[in-house]
Amino acid sequence: MINVYPKCHIYPISGLQIPPGYAIIHALRKANEGVHKERAKLGRKMAVSVSVVYVRDRVMYFTHLGDSRIYCLQDGKLNQLTRDHTLKEEDGFEKDRFSDPRLMKALTEGLGIHQLPSIKVKKFPLRQKDLILMTTEGLTTHVSNREILDLSSKAKDPEKLCNQLIDLASKKGGDGTERPTHKKTHLSYTRIAQILQNQNWLTV
């Protein structure tokens, strides 16, 4: 089963004065300032997708800007927790304005686009056997949620699963002009148990 954009509790504004919500927003705002400075120095437009996950007490705090996605495989169900910040997702009718369909992939949110990006931190409850997947559009352009679910349900090793997903994306890369590679497709697939034992932060 695939659950796209399940209802998640938005981290309350009143709680942003303490971690982890405040820490996530502060870090992304600082990163956004850095991208804007780089834009000014280079004299050209620049936009970066980013997704951030912080786990504490089996609760995942997460946010994203752009078309990097966050998934959680829980009890055989693949939950797509983020929605791409692109023209295609924000307003499907925009396609009538453009002759080139690739323009529909243009980001509406991302680091470097707005001086003060709209950052919403949400919460999602986790269980011991959950898997968290964070990926860039190099994967999701070519691999469907159904294919991600099928491979994830059979996988026992997160690293091998990442390689399988990248291989699948490469095979489905169309005419070869946009074939995803290890350098273009960034994946992080982690068992919640490993996060609780080793680290709290994940970023893509």
Between the first and last Cα atoms, what is the distance in angstroms?
25 Å
Radius of gyration: 17 Å
> Into which percent range does the helicity of residues fall?
25-40%
Q: Helix count, per DSSP?
A: 6
N-to-C order of helices and strands: EEHEEEEHEEHHHEHE
Number of strands: 10
Determine the strand fraction and express it as a percent band.
15-25%
What can be said about the biggest beta sheet?
5 strands, mixed
Sum up the overall morphology in one term: globular
Which CATH first-tier class would you pick?
A: Alpha Beta
Secondary-structure-derived class: alpha+beta
Q: What integer is the average pLDDT?
A: 79
| CATH topology term | Phosphatase 2c, domain 1
CATH architecture: 4-Layer Sandwich
Oligomer: single chain
Low-confidence stretches: 13-17, 174-184
The largest beta-sheet arranges its strands as 1-6-5-8-9
CATH superfamily: PPM-type phosphatase domain
Overall domain count: 1
Give your account of this protein's structure.
With 204 residues, the chain is α+β, with helices and mostly antiparallel strands. It has a single domain (2-203), classed as 4-Layer Sandwich (Phosphatase 2c, domain 1), CATH 3.60.40.10. It contains six helices and ten strands. The chain has helices spanning 21-42, 87-90, 137-140, 145-154, 158-171, 192-198; strands spanning 2-4, 9-10, 50-56, 59-65, 69-74, 77-80, 122-125, 131-135, 187-191, 201-203. The strands form two sheets. A five-stranded mixed β-sheet has the order 1-6-5-8-9. It is globular and about 45 Å long. The model is unreliable at 13-17 and 174-184 (pLDDT under 50).
